[in-house]
Amino acid sequence: MSDFFDRVLPEVQKTIELLRKKKFRLDPIGGEKYSRSTSVISSAYKRHGSIIEAAIRERLKDNDNFVVWDERSFKVSQAATNILSGTDEDCLGASLKYGDEVRTLQVDLIVYDKTRRTLRAYEVKRGNGSFDSGKKRSIMRDLLSTHVLLKSYGETRGLKVDSAESMIIFYYGIRSIPKPFSLTGDELDEHFGFDLVSAVELVNEYFKNSLYEILQK
Hints:
By secondary structure, the chain is α/β, with parallel strands linked by helices. Helix content is about 50%, strand content about 20%. The protein has a five-stranded mixed β-sheet with strand order 1-2-3-4-5. The longest helix has 30 residues, at about 30-60.
């Protein structure tokens, strides 16, 4: 577990340093103390999702049966865009060839299970608040775009893929996208068959304590 923590620590420390140097606008009724606290906390909420993402990804790398990475430029083809005009069920049953590109997506987490030969892509959200309807449609569009191309994407990387799916993790439990497209934090250990959440919570506790130190100064 210590190796895992050492791998995630630079991401946490980088965030803490940014929060420590955070500039803020003085609010007429908040005064300097509360204006600063509000600014730091608001920024911490936004940056915390990246820490959860890094912690999940690095902990899963400790499972020898998994190959784990992220994809900064997942190519979405025109064919994948066109199929989104159908129903969600149509998309779930489709598998399109990967390679053509009309736009790209950032995929937070991709996990290949070497034994089961499954490939799964995940977007990681903090999941402590709801999105508006427009954002939900955008999230679902990107999820389905990834889903229909994922099996072929894995094969271009030389992987033997029997099944592929794309999901969203709402870590703190508020689902903006329903099952079966989403997971919450309390479902992750069972989903991966691996002790994941306790490790993520070690990182969260360290981040929280570091944040409190900043606020007390």
